[in-house]
User: Fold this.
Amino acid sequence: MRIRLRNLLAEWCLAALRDARGSTPLRALAAFAERTDETGRAEGMATEQMAILASTGCFETDGVGVLLAPHLRHDLPALRARLPLLLDASAKSRALCGDPTTRDGLASWSLCAAAALFNTGLFFEVHELLESDWHRATGDLKTILQGLIQVAVGLHHQTEGNIRGALTRLNAGNEKLRRFRPAAHGIDLEGLCTAVERIVTRLRLTPGVPIEAPRLVVRQPFSENTR
Assistant:
């Protein structure tokens, strides 16, 4: 998927994680995906939805229909495949994690939401979500957030077929997280680190074989002082 479209989807997903009202762009995209034909054109959408898509630069409209911009049309299958994951993860996050403004601590809500993304296979979005918290964090939490980001980026590289990049990031992230096993800040690091170690071994021995992605388990309620 082209970077511009991938980043747009991630931006919309993060907005939907935080507030159901933020899911309006994703719902517009869902309407597009339901109606689009093999050429990437959809008709019968609400005017407001057409306007949302057309404003991004990734879509075009003639007033009757909406279609992906010409340079993005080969991304239509990937868009259709990714959209249900984005909708599923954002709904799960809102149900489990609630409103981020009601959470105590720097990364309480973010870690909860990151688990919803991670366990849906949205590893790029995990990076986008946690990066700002990592920049602001200090001490052990900063190291843990960086480790989680690196593991997520490694898994994203693996899904893109970049095995070398995957191994580099997975090893770097796991090295940071192993220091805090078995658990820290509500995160089951024992289970995560063990699963990542198995993946690294599998990728080294049989890089073309599909892997089973690990799960990120975050206990609730979360406290930044939880160890």
Strands lie at 41-43, 59-61, 65-68, 183-184, 187-188. The radius of gyration is 19 Å. The chain has two domains: 3-82, 98-205. The chain is about 60% helix and 5% strand.
